[in-house]
Amino acid sequence: MAYPLITNCPVCSKQLNITKLQCKHCHTTVENEFELSKLASLGQEQLHFIEIFLKCRGSIKEVEKELGISYPTVRGKLDDIISAMGYSANRKAEVDKKKVVSMLEKGEITAEEAIALLKEGDM
Fold this sequence. Notes:
Elements: E1 18-22, E2 29-34, H1 44-55, H2 60-67, H3 71-84, H4 97-105, H5 111-122
Helix pairs in contact: 4-5
């Protein structure tokens, strides 16, 4: 039985080093120090979100529908994942107000979401 890969020590919570790999078929074993991908360090909820995001081909609107969450929530989750992977989530200091109004007019976002986006740009 295979268990999900853990990336942090259950005792001290520091990152674990992967030091042994074994073939299920022939049982060849390789020992060394191996690096995990940045995706491997994400939590299950974050990986699920990425899976949905990819399935929706990066369409935030489709992710909203699929998960039943708002546009600002989708963006917030994306920013959290970007940060967790060690990148800076460069939030635009200037929100494109015309785009927000256009999205609101097209029914792509609610009035509350438009307000949240416009307030985010004022920060």
